Amino acid sequence: MRFRSVFRASLANIKTSRSRCFRRSFSRLQPQSDRPSFGIAFDIDGVILRGRTPVGGSPQALRRLYRDDGTLKIPFLFLTNGGGVPESKRASELSQLLGIEISPQQVVQGHSPFKEVVNRYENELIVAVGKGEPAAVMSEYGFKKVLSIDEYASYFKDIDPLSQYKTWRIKQTYDENSSMELHPRYDVYSDRVKAAFVVSDPVDWGRDIQVLCDILRYGGLPGRDKGHQPPIYFASDDLEYQAVFPAERLGMGAFRIALEGIFNSVSSSPLEYTSFGKPNPFVFKNAEVILTQLVSDIYHIQDNMDGGTGHEFSTLYMIGDNPKVDTNGAMKAGHPWFSMLTRTGVFRGKDNDSQFPADLARLLLSKDALAENLAPIRRVVVRLRTGHETISTL
């Protein structure tokens, strides 16, 4: 296996672009003397939500991070390996489910780093894979020629030999004046796919593995002469995640393992891929940039020449439920990250995780839990209820 986790985006450019967005998102500025020395990153699935249902008192806990007038008091964001919809849509959904105002800039999904490679593939044909709206996500990032794998596969007759046995139907684009023949928006029969992006968890694993193997083995043009493998990018590499069902569900990492095993069996060269998402430390460094920009916007701190705000956090809390990605990622990122592990998702142990121990484990967010006495500089008291016991730390 060749595993490449390559992030070449310029953090300086990210700082500059996000700074403009934050200033538009938060208009009521606060005095610099009140600014906190810490920020918070929450995982979503298994920490804040189970499906579309809030976990415990998470909405009430999050409201503690806002002032009485609804303005943000403590910089926080959602750092998730999930996705499938644009950040703007996800922010709107979270706002409705949690009863608080969430900005799109506070939502960092597994596929968010894909926007940093737009310049490389902006005008090239790419295929987007996964549930939800993968093509819409990529289009919003600035990719000009993107097709979902549903649409792409529909243009190649018999590429999925099992399609006749499937009871579901995929919406297709037909030309009414051509005897119902499909008319591709791009010349998919001669234009090679330059890259594939697994945006979210695939729905039809069998078809998607087959079509991706065709694209990757034949140089971006299924059924033609074999060619150099186009790049493939995964939004995350989670083996499992916590959904509504009591036991963990297989995630994108499981799909990647399945694709890789099959591709390596039918190809003379091993699969080469790039995986984003937690626990890659770049994701945490990028989150730190966003949280810094939040502080800049809330407290009206002037940018430095390098695009930064000059604000430094003494502590950044990663609150997650999956030791392999949340705790492991915070450990890899190092200072100022401090990992906190809940018992409401993947992790169910009585004590800490043995392989990736969190700085603080066995937590359950509740309405009385998060952030009482949050303001003091260089000191934060986080109260999280564990049964009848209340833990105060730091």
Automatic annotation (TrEMBL):
Pfam families found in the cross-reference section: Hydrolase_6 (PF13344), Hydrolase_like (PF13242)
InterPro entries, per the entry: CDP-alcohol_PTase-I, HAD-like_sf, HAD-SF_hydro_IIA, HAD-SF_hydro_IIA_CECR5, HAD_sf
SUPFAM superfamilies, per the entry: HAD-like
Gene coding for it: LOC103711068
GO BP term (any one): glycerophospholipid biosynthetic process
UniProt lineage: Eukaryota, Viridiplantae, Streptophyta, Embryophyta, Tracheophyta
PANTHER family registered for this protein in UniProt: CAT EYE SYNDROME CRITICAL REGION PROTEIN 5 (PTHR14269:SF4), CDP-DIACYLGLYCEROL--GLYCEROL-3-PHOSPHATE 3-PHOSPHATIDYLTRANSFERASE-RELATED (PTHR14269)
Source species of the chain: Phoenix dactylifera (Date palm)
Source superkingdom: Eukaryota
Protein name: Uncharacterized protein YKR070W isoform X1
Entry's Gene Ontology cellular component terms: mitochondrion
